Amino acid sequence: MGGYLMYFLLIIIIPIWAQFRVQSTYKKFAKIPTTAGITGAEVARKILDANGLYNVQVKETPGVLSDHYNPITKSVHLSSDNFHRPSVAGAAVAAHEVGHAIQDQQGYAPLRFRHALVPVANISSNIAWIFIIIGLLSTAFSNMLLIGIVLMAAGVLFQLVTLPVEFNASSRAMDQIVSLGLISNSEERDARKVLNAAAMTYVAAAAVAVLELLRLILIFTNRE
């Protein structure tokens, strides 16, 4: 009983900790202006142009930390604060999203693999728990549990593939904002803190997904 309690505490605490870390780090450095004094939108545009991505648009999107790159429309979307305000956090986030655009341009294999997994992961994640719940209700439905585990594994694979994609985008982001002089040497460490905190949310999500998958596999194998 104690083991199960510890397990459930872990899968609850890990994501909460990761979210708290990224929000507190972002909030702190969103208040610190860069020496260059340029907005996130300007940072994104400068990096895009420096890499020949003139066709990629930079757009404002509502929300907080809603920033993303859309590979279908070939556009970088920045939340309002990051789009308009010159801050260390805004520069780091904008550069990160442009990192995805550069990955897309160069045909970065993990990004392509993740894009291919999107429809599979969406479908499997939505229906996996139907089979899992039915399978957990009775040992007579063990095959249903196995189907649920296989479906869930597709979602876990998506989470794992996301990790190298995000870490690589952050690495590209730091290379770009440093080499183009968009942040000063003293701001480099702070920008890296923002990107590392954001990356931890993906690590936490992947860790929780793997733990849950392993738990279900153990339940299934113990029935055999």
Automatic annotation (TrEMBL):
Keywords from the UniProt entry: Hydrolase, Membrane, Protease, Transmembrane, Transmembrane helix
Pfam families linked to this entry: Zn_peptidase_2
Domain of life: Bacteria
Gene Ontology MF terms in the entry: peptidase activity
InterPro entries linked to this entry: Zn_peptidase_2 (IPR007395)
Biological process according to GO: proteolysis
Membrane-spanning intervals of the chain: 6-22, 116-138, 144-165, 199-220
Name under which the protein is recorded: Zn-dependent membrane protease YugP
Source species: Siminovitchia thermophila
Classification lineage: Bacteria, Bacillati, Bacillota, Bacilli, Bacillales
